Amino acid sequence: MQRSFAFLLVLAFVTFTSAAHIAISVGKNGLTYTPAQAKVRVGDKVTWTFADTVAHTVTQSTAKGGCKRLAGGFASTTRSNGTFSWVVKGAGPWYYHCAVRGHCAAGMVGSLTLAK
Ligand SMILES: [Cu+2]
């Protein structure tokens, strides 16, 4: 009885601390993020991987589908390789776009929303 209770405690601990790793590719399929919409949980680590011949950014937006940078929001540098990561905090949803000239207007936007 005592042993199974300890096991349950361990199980609960593992369940509550297992943050997921969300992978999003940048520019792999044109001016897009793949996936463009991702479900996340608080504590998850989101990693965008840049792999394109042209440079892009991951820049948090002020509004859904918007091309304006949110002051104090997450923002990567302009790059064509490497990664940018952000750990989910707050209630969301979070919207982001590519700040390279013309890319956001061409539809290069993404969103993160909390999984129910
Ligand atoms: Cu871009």
Helix and strand topology:
Blueprint: H1 2-17, E1 21-26, E2 33-34, E3 37-40, E4 45-50, E5 59-60, E6 83-87, E7 94-97, E8 109-114
The structure holds copper (II) ion (CU).
Protein name: Cupredoxin
InterPro entries: BlueCu_1, Cu_oxidase_CS, Cupredoxin, Ser-rich/MCO-related
Organism: Jimgerdemannia flammicorona
Provide a brief overview of the structure:
Helices cover 14% and strands 30% of the residues. By secondary structure, it is α/β, with parallel strands linked by helices.
Core attributes:
single chain; 116 residues; alpha/beta; Immunoglobulin-like; 4-stranded mixed sheet; 30% strand; binds copper (II) ion
Q: What this model shows, in words?
A:
There is one protein chain. This protein has 116 residues and is α/β, with parallel strands linked by helices. The protein has a single domain, classed as Sandwich (Immunoglobulin-like). Helix content is 14%, strand content 30%. The chain contains 1 helix and 8 strands, in the order H-E-E-E-E-E-E-E-E. It has one helix at 2-17, and strands at residues 21-26, 33-34, 37-40, 45-50, 59-60, 83-87, 94-97, 109-114. The longest helix is centred in the first third of the chain and has 16 residues, at 2-17. Mean pLDDT is 90; it is low at 7-11. Residues 31, 56, 98, 100, 103, 108 line the site of copper (II) ion.
> Helix count?
1
Ligand set: copper (II) ion
Helix content: 10-25%
Give the H and E element order: HEEEEEEEE
